[in-house]
Amino acid sequence: MSINTEEFYSILASKMEGSVIREILKLVQNPEVVSLAGGMPDPATFPVEDIKKITQKVLSKNSARALQYSTTEGLPELRRCILDYLAKDGNNGELENIIISSGSQQGLDLVGKVFLNPGDIAIVELPSYLAALNAFHSYGGELAGVPMDDEGMQMDILEEKLTQLKNEGKKVKFIYTISNFQNPAGVTMSLTRRKKIIEIAHKFNVFIVEDNPYEKLRFEGEPIPSIYSLDNNGFVLSLGTFSKILCPGLRLAWVLGNKDIISKMAILKQATDLCTSILTQIIAYEYCKSGKLEENIRSNIQIYKRKRDVILNALDKYFPQEVTWTKPQGGFFVVATLPEYIDTGEMFKEAIEEKVAYVPGGPFFADGKGKNTMRLSFCYPSVEDIDEGIKRLGKVIKKRIKN
Fold first, then answer.
1. Which of 35, 73, 102, 354 has CA 20 to 30 A from 239's CA?
2. What fold is seen in the domain 9-46+295-402?
3. Mean pLDDT throughout 200-224?
């Protein structure tokens, strides 16, 4: 006799589906497939020797603390170190304004837990980060999308959407934006629109959740003040991470914002993991204290800038004129837009046969559109594989257009 597990699942478990990206990554294990799919950092950017030395030092001199439980909010000295680092760019706060999370995904999960009841609305960009959409949806949140252009979320449409939802009696809890080098589009929100989104948030009494994993990976142009730094009224939560500037394996990120929201997040986090690994927190603290983080970021920028240049050159060289794409000034991603009659989800099988992978764009769009788009990641593959992968993909697209 076997048990039917389906009848035991919670409503939450029943409605959750696996990430499209994770499923794609399972399909590209063949080393002959050039993957432009996953947004994984290049291992060449990991300061392996430094982390090895720090870990040995910590375990030899402070193992009792490093292998113990810690406070839910996170190691005070690491939080202070992050605050000092953020303050250089005008992102000010005290210890009560910051919590350490086990990766940014936990931060997004805590956002969903704190804010969303079933039927509540989260405003998101079109397109937006798939794992954020899944996190918000898991708590019964409904997603209302606002399109972007080269300056980010379109504020006139945002205001219209908020007015419409208010008139319908819907409760909007927050606006979610990836303000720098957006995932998947690679677009950066302009300063004018950052100021405008704060004005709109105040007008409609909603929070802004600013996800900022790629902020430091700017290849050219002047840095733009964060939305968090421009607001003085506690309306903005800012998410940051060590995954893109140090390494993702430490699973360390943070949420900075209104002290009451941070306090509530700490209570909810206790029910999830009690605390983030204190061993990795100490390692990150010692690394930051050494002064090497800025040096590592500068090195990372050079690596990723070269790859960005290679993918843009390859797109010019191999993609047909019917295709357009974004031209990011930083980050990890490019979004390509194909003729509307091409469904990149359906085309994926042909790409795998040609031994190249990407992420179909449809799942990034909360409104169900974007099926003729694709996300191309240049962060992980070598420059040679980027060129070859775009060449193979160009061949697939040209065949589709011809037919």
1. 35
2. Aspartate Aminotransferase, domain 1 (3.90.1150)
3. 98
